[in-house]
Design goal:
With 111 residues, the chain is α+β, with helices and mostly antiparallel strands. It has one domain.
């Protein structure tokens, strides 16, 4: 099943940016009945960090309040920076279902 959301759709260009920089892209998604997880490699996290995309990604959930969007953007920026500084790590963005209007989004780094 193909899911189209702004956050998932943006994962592809970020992967292409990393690929265009001469590094293999490995953006992956995992779907469960309750969540969709978008995983970025440390190289892709470095691109998110370098291009300061945390606030852009944080602004995407249509049902989030302005404060929630700001906090999500700050978390994405912080964790992308952590993943960028940790070789071999994964930046994971966990989006609660329904993806089109998620009740919550979590961000973590897996070393």
């Amino acid at each position: 099943m193909r899911i189209r959301t702004p956050l998932l759709t943006l994962a592809v260009p970020i992967g292409c940016l990393a690929f265009g920089a001469g590094t293999a892209s490995a953006v992956t998604t995992e779907q469960t009945p309750n969540t969709v997880t978008v995983n970025f490699t440390d190289v892709e996290a470095r691109m998110i960090d370098a291009l300061d995309l945390g606030p852009v990604l944080g602004a995407l959930p249509p049902n989030f309040t302005p404060e929630a969007k700001q906090r999500l953007g700050e978390n994405l920026a912080e964790f992308a920076g952590r993943a960028a500084r940790t070789p071999g790590s994964t930046l994971s963005v966990i989006i609660d279902q329904p993806v089109g209007a998620p009740p919550g989004i979590g961000v973590t780094v897996i070393p």
